[in-house]
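Hi everyone,

Forwarding the result from last night's run.
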Amino acid sequence: MPPRDDVCVLVPTLDEAETIGDVVRDYREAGFENVLVIDGGSTDGTVEAATDAGARVVSQAGTGKGQAVREAVSEHIEAPYVLMVDGDGTYLPSDAEAMLEPLGEGCEHVIGDRFADMHEGAMTRLNRVGNRLFNRAFAYIHGTDFGDILSGYRAFSRESFERMTLTAEGFGIETEMAVECAKHRIETTVVPITYLPRPSGSNTNLSPLRDGSIILLELYRRAKTNNPLFYFGSVGFVSTAVGLGIAIWVGVEWVTRSISHEVMAVVAASGILFGVQLLMFGVLSDLIFSLHREQMQRLDRLEERRE
């Protein structure tokens, strides 16, 4: 495990006055003196509570959790390791050692698996189902199972974070980090953690519909460079299926009722042609991607032999 002096506990916040003081105090009592709270414009006394508890507090220039994390790591953190935690009191400082231990063994990114010990009431049934679906979709699209890609409890080296290309503004940052770990072959592991319900009086900033849509879109958008066959093929399949469905309807109408639908026939043909072209493009892109990945693996093996 890295020395605690080499770790910065990063806490992105927005209106977490009810919990942030206890979160900061708990981590400081656990031996982490370097606690950075980056605030997104709270109006409920979050900044004052965090400062009184002993945290270093900075106000982010923009808005959103993703922007806060990028800004904090690039501009305000000098420690070689970062322990990222939410400010809502749902994660335990006692899990910090397990989160940081792999970093001392050569791992670069650690994800805390909330499903390993999720207390009753910590997550609604809808959110639980959504999380499971997103994790399965990620594993299918990117070929890597990280268990809980939406977990806000992360530990990582600052060097590995700088290798990521991150653009998400809000809660999509966790998904984006997981995708970048898979894309750049960042050594990643998953450790079991405890996930607690939010304390009473503390309100979540998460909107299941809005943020779920953002996460789903981010998963699909990032598939372009990690799984081009899925990215292009999924749209191609839908377009082809719709075109075939319209074509069958046009054929049935012409055979049974002698009614021709010229415009719909053109639409059907266009849908089929467009879909088939996308499917072919997806196959070719996947072939190029596979060859590129194999070439990069060969180069990595050559570098290892030289070392």
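The chain has a mean pLDDT of 88.

Cheers,
N.
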